[in-house]
Amino acid sequence: MTSVDIDTVPHDRLSTNDMARLRELFDAEYFAEFGAWDPDQPYGYAPHDVHVIARLGAAVVGHVGWARRTIGVGTAEVVVAGVGGVLISPHARGQRAGTLLLAHAALSMKDAGGIEYGYLGCREEVVAFYESCGWRRISAVEHSIDRAGHPVMQAPGPPLLTLPLDPKPRSWPAGPIDLRGRAW
């Protein structure tokens, strides 16, 4: 594989070309099931403040989006980078592009300052990949707003993962998680 270039772009600085290439990446994967990608409400999930983009020449071959939010965990408040929109183009899979992309995303979260943890939910099939990149699985009740705008409670079980961003992180607090909005 030719060298993949990684860019970190704030949402409000995405170029028209970036938007078009990201739309191609997401629509190639999800259009049949979810329709067209909307960067301001991707498939009904929370939008991203920052986009970490993998490029192979002019093509966008990968993406990780994240947004800073203070969530409730038990009686504590935790500042997280809620991660979503993790996608690698089929022709870039299996060549470590995802690992490189997640490493750059973690650096961008750390560089943003004041964020304690990366936070994401995912499918069971990709948990091992995230764990290989340093993410840790947690188990908790999760409260959020669903894609239709209604409150929802998810019982423990489906994968939730965190990534400590502080060199000396406090332990992830015990208790139910309130995302205080849509998942990413």
Could you explain the architecture of this structure?
By secondary structure, the protein is of the alpha+beta class. The protein has a single domain (5-182), classed as Aminopeptidase. Helices cover 22% and strands 37% of the residues. The chain has 3 helices and 10 strands. Strand 7 (142-145) and strand 8 (151-154) form a beta hairpin. It is globular and about 45 Å long.
Envelope shape? globular
CATH superfamily: Gcn5-related N-acetyltransferase (GNAT)
Which CATH top level class fits?
Alpha Beta
- Write down the Rg: 16 Å
Summed over residues and divided by their number, the pLDDT gives a mean of 94
Low-confidence stretches: none
Number of E-type strands: 10
Q: Estimate percent helicity.
A: 10-25%
Integer count of domains? 1
The main pleated sheet reads as: 10 strands, mixed
Distance between the termini: 30 Å
- What is the level-2 CATH architecture name? 3-Layer(aba) Sandwich
